[in-house]
Amino acid sequence: MAAEFGSYPKRELGARESWAPATGATLSKTWPRTLALFNPSPIETLTATQPDASSSASVRTPTMEETPAPTQSAGGHSAVATNDDSLGPPLLKLPDELLLKIVGYHAPSVQYLERPRAELRNLSLASRRLHRITGEILYSQLNIKKKTDSRRVIPQLARALTETQHLRNNFKSASGTHRHHDTAPLAPQIADQLLGDIRGYRNHDALRNGLLTGNLDAAFAHILLLLPALEELELTYDFATNSGGVQNFHSHVLDALDAATAPTPGHHGFTNLARIVLVFDEIAKVPWTGSFLAIPSLKSVCLGRVTIDTEHWTCDTNSSLVQRLMILYADETLPSRLVTLLESFANLKELVIDLEDCYMNEPWNVVQMHEALLLQKHALEYLDVWSNEVYSMFQDPVGTPLPSLKEFVKLRYLGLTDSIIFGETPAENIEPSTAAHLLSNLFPPSLEEFRHRVWSGRRPEQARYHEPSRMRIDWWKSVWPVAHMPSQFPSLQNVAYQRYHPYHRGLNVWYWPSHEG
After folding, report:
1. Cα–Cα nearest to 280, from 314, 330, 219
2. What residue spans carry the region label Disordered (predicted)?
3. Which of 23, 119, 221, 314 is 20 to 30 A distant from 258 in Cα terms?
4. Is 350 helix (H, G, I), strand (E, B) or coil?
């Protein structure tokens, strides 16, 4: 998604919406276009590859003795000692910026294919200058997916970054999927050697112990502490196949991020970090104190399965410059702790909350959520709330209507479940004209797009217990023609009705105004 902050990206109605972390991690549900806001723009982004575990050349940097020295040509131009005429003076006369664009044109294939990667490594050996330029492509992105990556690539990369420090500024992106909990343990002497540059890091001892025991999260955190130019971090934990010992999981990566707001001689402070995605494992929910939210460069944060630690919360009021926030797989404690979280932001423009384990039919949850949202009424442009609803065959849901959003003067997109809107089943209790009046009192005049949803069970076979959803669709079809009056909704352009459950989100079943497709 290549939208500027604060812009409102239009989407084609009828298109299926889905999202998953760029690491390729398997989540328990697909997500709407909302989460595409957290993906970086492909424009002006150098896409490269991690060091190749199968070749030490991808990690080791050639020494000056191994690099061909420039020679002087007859015309006085600097040339390169090489048998490839294409690398003669015409190419080397080009400025660095143009050479970087030429080499970067092949960057996507370098990421996925070995042959372009090997050719780029060979090109890097042609001269010192080409070695420096190609290094910005070869070593700009670290992506750890396989078990062999954590067993081989991470130790090799740690050693390479320790011995050849000029590589550190090349890495702009780090991502990974941790489907296991361990890596190769280090001997004490090796660990001390690798940690030599970060002895002043405040969590040095805990990190060292993690490296000695082969803790994968500690090894990844160590890599992050060696990457001062990092701009994006995306990490997903999935320990389901190897759950031993992670019930009391401690995140060394969170330690490294939290220490950035009070950098020491052993910490670079993540001064360029703009985007963070951290989705923890279902059996390893992690307490979060919010420290890293105060990193000045940080603009976009997505966190999954974290518990807001209000007793030890360290992010001061209005101190965070983050503009996009997403909380996934929130537990039942989130509504009561949402005030602590949202008061930390100066101007939060986009907020997505997944209340998977928190039933918003409870009146106090809706009231607490609204109280917290009011803290960002001056800034919010995009608000999307996914929540479970309990529609059993025995009783209707009990809840309270959402208080007015009229004060949210910049709000342009809104996504809510029906029970949050009315607090009850509208198809059985509210006349369309009455519903239209309630909606006009609820929505701000700035609203351009609204999506309302009905929960249809944790599994598809439970849909028969949610048959009222069919009635509600017909009922809503009679509401919006009545509700849509320019005086009430001057900016509203379209409405979508969605039926969803955890394994199939964002299924649009009806639109207003009607359209083809």
Report:
1. 330
2. 45-83
3. 23
4. strand
Q: Which residues pair with 388 in a beta bridge?
A: 359
Do the Cβ atoms of 120 and 138 come closer than 8 Å?
Answer: yes
> Quick one: tokens of 359?
């039933």
What pLDDT is recorded for position 411?
98
- Residue 484's SS3 state is coil
**E strand residue ranges, 194-290:** 232-237, 275-279, 286-288
Alpha-helical segments (H) within 344-431: 363-373, 418-422, 426-429
Residue 146 has pLDDT above 90, yes or no: no
Task: Please list, in sequence order, all residues whose beta carbon lies within 8 angstroms of the beta carbon of residue 259, skipping any fewer than 6 positions away.
Answer: 201, 202, 203, 267, 291
| For residue 246, pLDDT beyond 60 | no
Separation of alpha carbons 386 and 251, rounded Å: 27
Cβ-Cβ contacts under 8 Å for 64 (sequence gap 6 or more): 128
Residue 375 is predicted with a pLDDT of 98
Residue 76: CB partners within 8 Å, gap ≥ 6?
Answer: none
Q: Does the pLDDT value for residue 19 go beyond 70?
A: no
Taking residues 62-75, report their average pLDDT.
38
Residue in this structure with the two tokens 């939210």, named with its chain if needed: 293
Query: Which residue in 69, 88, 86 sits closest to 77, CA to CA?
Result: 88
Structure tokens at 243: 């759950």
